[in-house]
Structure formats: structure tokens, C-alpha cells
Write a structure and sequence with these properties.
By secondary structure, the protein is mostly beta strands. The chain has 1 helix and 10 strands, in the order αββββββββββ.
Length: about 250
């Protein structure tokens, strides 16, 4: 599955860029348009929480991403600037809540054991005690569950995407953007039984403010989904509401 995705990741951008070069569209160089033929961008994105928005089940996951993007205008008119868009994220950090379980045995022997684990749901601090008599022997202990957080390093690539900027004659333009791609992390996310190679897609609205015909800044909100498509033992999936800031330039 990863090799097939990698092949698509190489073929699709080449095909789309070649098509864009041949497309008949009005040049952004024409006066009156705030648009670019080729756009280069740098961005950062963050989400403080995850929940079951559409497909994901993993809760309380965080995302922090830094990346670069390339866009190519496919069609430009007074209503819409339709662009092909590809993103590469050399830094894609995902954070899972970790349950720290500590058990203090008081009978029949006195000792302490501890383990850390991740679960699909959020971590909730708890404590309690247990005691029972079996075959004349008393088994008893107290336990505490405290919460920690584990950040996992990864990278992501979205080779297939589109951006639609509306009213390109205006400096302030609403837009809609979408991508499909994959993400690789140094260990499985969001739980140990899931995968370290995941598929991703995102989409959402935003606002782009042109400082000049060649430079702009964007603010956007995206629904972002991560899933291994059942290629591992478990696939809880992660749904995040992602906020992104982008600086773009080009001509």
C-alpha cells in the first residue's frame, strides 16, 4: 500500500502541472487580478484537540505542523482562481494522552509496579483500592492513574490538492481548499496497535489577504483526518479541527 501511494504521489503532480501548463486561462499578470501563476508558500498549523467530527474515534489528540506548498493556477476569471496545490510537511507532530498506571501492592507482598499506555479515549485521572481473599490469602492494592502526554515525530506529503479563490479582483478573497496524501510517524499513532503509516485528507474554508499582486497571507480552518485504512491491527482514526496560517508569494 505505501509503495502504490508513493507512485501516485509522483504521477499525479506531474500530470496536473503538465495539464496546467497547457490550460487556456487568463494570465494573472493582467491588470485587475490579485492572483499568481505560480505560488510558493510556507505555513504552520495547529490543533489542540480531536474528537469524533466525521470518521475518527481517537480523542484529545493534538497536531502541530510546519510545511511548504506549491500552487499552480489552472483557471482564472473574475469569479474564481482555480489552483492545483501540493503540500510537503517535513515536521508533522502528533500528541497522544498517556495513562500512567501505578499499582502499590500491600498484600501478600509489598511492592510497586507501573506501566504507561495509550487508549482511544482521553486520559482521566483516577484512583482506588482493591482487596479480596482467595484460598486463605489476602490480595490487596491501591492504584492511581495519572496523565502525561507523548509527542510523536513524523512527516507528511499531500501530492493531490485544489484551492479555489473567489472574487480574485479583490484583495480580500474567500477560498476553499482540499488535499489528499499520507503521513509517516516514527511510531504508531494514535495507539500502539495502530499504524505508523497513515493516509490523510483535509478540506476547509479560509480568507486570503493580498498585500500586493504577488504576496499574500492566509488564515484558514480545515477538517483534518488521519487513518491507516485498516492496514494494521486497529484503526481508531483521528479527526482534528486544524487552524493554519500561511505566507505566500510568486508571480
Amino acid at each position: 500500500m505505501p509503495s502504490r501511494t508513493a507512485q501516485l504521489g509522483l504521477v499525479l503532480p506531474i500530470a496536473l502541472i503538465a495539464g496546467a501548463a497547457a490550460a487556456r486561462s487568463q494570465s494573472p499578470a493582467n491588470s485587475g487580478y490579485y492572483a499568481r501563476t505560480n505560488t510558493y508558500s510556507f505555513f504552520s498549523a495547529y490543533s489542540d484537540d480531536s474528537s469524533h467530527i466525521l470518521m475518527g474515534a481517537a480523542e484529545n489528540r493534538k497536531l502541530l505542523e510546519f510545511g511548504a506548498a506549491y500552487g499552480r493556477t489552472l483557471k482564472l476569471n473574475r469569479i474564481v482562481n482555480w489552483q492545483f496545490n501540493v503540500e510537503f510537511l517535513p515536521v508533522a507532530l502528533e500528541s497522544d494522552p498517556v495513562v500512567v498506571n501505578t499499582v502499590n501492592w500491600t498484600s501478600p507482598n509489598v511492592y510497586t509496579e507501573s506501566r504507561n499506555y495509550t487508549q482511544t479515549g482521553p486520559c482521566i485521572p483516577t484512583s482506588g483500592s482493591f482487596s479480596k481473599i482467595q484460598d486463605g490469602t489476602t490480595y490487596s492494592y491501591t492504584y492511581t492513574n495519572t496523565c502525561s502526554r507523548q509527542w510523536t515525530v513524523g512527516e507528511a506529503f499531500s501530492p493531490f490538492g485544489f484551492q479555489f479563490n473567489f472574487l480574485p479582483r479583490h484583495k480580500l478573497q474567500p477560498f476553499f481548499i482540499m488535499h489528499g496524501g499520507n503521513m509517516y510517524t516514527t511510531q504508531p499513532i494514535p495507539i500502539a496497535a495502530a499504524g505508523s503509516f497513515n493516509f490523510t485528507f483535509d478540506f476547509g474554508p479560509g480568507i486570503e489577504l493580498y498585500r500586493s499582486a504577488s504576496k499574500s497571507i492566509r488564515a484558514e480552518y480545515r477538517f483534518h483526518h488521519i487513518s491507516d485504512r485498516d492496514t494494521s491491527q486497529e484503526n481508531p482514526g483521528i479527526d482534528n479541527g486544524l487552524f493554519q496560517l500561511t505566507y505566500s508569494f510568486g508571480r
